[in-house]
Amino acid sequence: MARVIVDVMPKPEILDPQGKAVTGALKRLGFDGLTVRQGKRFEVDVEGDLTDERLDQVREAAEKLLANTVIEAFDVRVEQ
Questions:
Q1: Which residue positions does the secretion signal occupy (predicted)?
Q2: What does the alpha-carbon distance between residue 43 and residue 41 come to, in Å, rounded to a whole number?
């Protein structure tokens, strides 16, 4: 069984209030110089062989369901 990771992040031009809140909290705790953008991570277990077609299915699932592609970008990678 293969594991595919889908990372979803707000597009750079989109405001990220959660990331901004975490960045502010880190600064108050003394962690200067750190900026956070908050996203989502999905771990997708693929039964059987991980073929190009199956990887394309994961990409399609990410585009249609896991990410709101109007405001989010996603990256699909195979976990080793």
A1: none
A2: 7
Cβ–Cβ < 8 Å for 6, 76: yes
CATH of domain 2-78: 3.30.1280.10
Strands 40-46 and 2-10: antiparallel
Q: What are phi and psi of 24, to 5 degrees?
A: -65, -40
Q: Helix or strand or coil: residue 29? A: coil
Q: How confident is the model at residue 74 (pLDDT cuts 50, 70, 90)?
A: very high
| Per-domain boundaries in the chain | 2-78
Q: Is the pTM of this model over 0.85?
A: yes
pLDDT tens readout for residues 51-63: 999 999 999 999 9
pLDDT of 80 above 80: no
